User: Which sequence fits this backbone?
């Protein structure tokens, strides 16, 4: 493992919350507001970490373990994800399956923690989360399968490196599909609104209503790391980096992540949130795009 590869997970851990700040400032710019400081997510994490946690008597160890396991699983998955042409810190053939399973493990414990509260409100959010995940994960796997077939690689680092030598029209389809899946997996508009507290529209936020203090900080940091992880895949498809010095690859990867954050902010500023009954159609559409790309690659 070389130095740039070792730096990628550290950069993700330090810079991932900044993506949320960029998104919020972009949305404020479109709304004609000043908006919160771009470093506000860091201040929120520090504030939450300094607070104490309050636990209901109806909860068990599952509720306390949920944020920790979710953050640990997401952080471990980051070790296998390359950034801007820089290979991942860890890599082996088939590591893409491990990454998907680690993300699924984090979601599983988040849902368990929500159900452990005994609240029907959080149970409603958990039900929605599982329903949409069942539609998003096959689309993500299919998109990565397309890349693997085209590049002939079975590791994420090899797959993203192989894209630099490919210029097929299928890449645009996979990019759009992965972008839609990112919006769904990170609870962004048009699938979910992280700023809402309306009972009929909440998905992710409702599952973490009972978390507070350090636990909520773990949840927020895990969500930022998940956005970074999926964003690295999206930018890797959209902006494959050809040969060059590792520093250039690293810089282009970080700049690509900020560009993606601006794009997400633009999407949230120009689109309305979809009705819940329309979200499955959006996720199925993402899978269909990857399916078309699959046939183009196999042709």
Assistant:
């Amino acid at each position: 493992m070389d130095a740039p590869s070792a730096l990628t997970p550290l950069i993700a851990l330090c810079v991932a919350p900044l993506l949320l700040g960029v998104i919020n400032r972009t949305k404020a710019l479109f709304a004609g507001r000043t908006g919160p400081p771009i470093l506000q997510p860091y201040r929120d994490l520090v504030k939450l970490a300094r607070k104490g946690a309050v636990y209901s008597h109806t909860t068990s160890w599952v509720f306390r373990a949920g944020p920790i396991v979710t953050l640990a699983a997401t952080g471990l998955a980051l070790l296998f994800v390359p950034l801007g042409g820089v290979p991942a810190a860890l890599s082996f053939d088939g590591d893409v399956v491990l990454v998907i399973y680690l993300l699924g493990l984090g979601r599983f414990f988040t849902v368990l923690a929500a159900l452990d509260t005994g609240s029907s409100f959080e149970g409603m959010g958990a039900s929605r989360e599982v329903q949409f995940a069942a539609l998003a994960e096959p689309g993500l796997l299919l998109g990565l399968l397309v890349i693997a077939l085209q590049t002939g690689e079975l590791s994420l680092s090899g797959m993203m490196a192989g894209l630099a030598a490919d210029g097929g029209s299928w890449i645009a389809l996979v990019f759009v599909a992965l972008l839609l899946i990112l919006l769904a997996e990170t609870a962004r508009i048009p699938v979910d609104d992280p700023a809402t507290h309306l009972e009929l529209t909440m998905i992710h936020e409702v599952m973490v209503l009972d978390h507070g203090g350090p636990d909520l900080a773990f949840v927020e940091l895990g969500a930022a790391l998940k956005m970074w992880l999926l964003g690295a895949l999206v930018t890797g498809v959209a902006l494959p980096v050809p040969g060059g010095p590792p520093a250039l690859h690293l810089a282009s990867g970080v700049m690509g992540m900020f560009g993606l954050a601006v794009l997400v902010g633009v999407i949230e500023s120009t689109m309305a949130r979809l009705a819940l009954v329309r979200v499955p159609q959006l996720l199925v559409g993402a899978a269909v795009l990857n399916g078309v790309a699959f046939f183009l690659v196999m042709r």
Notes: The chain has a mean pLDDT of 89. The CA atoms of residues 48 and 222 lie 14 Å apart.
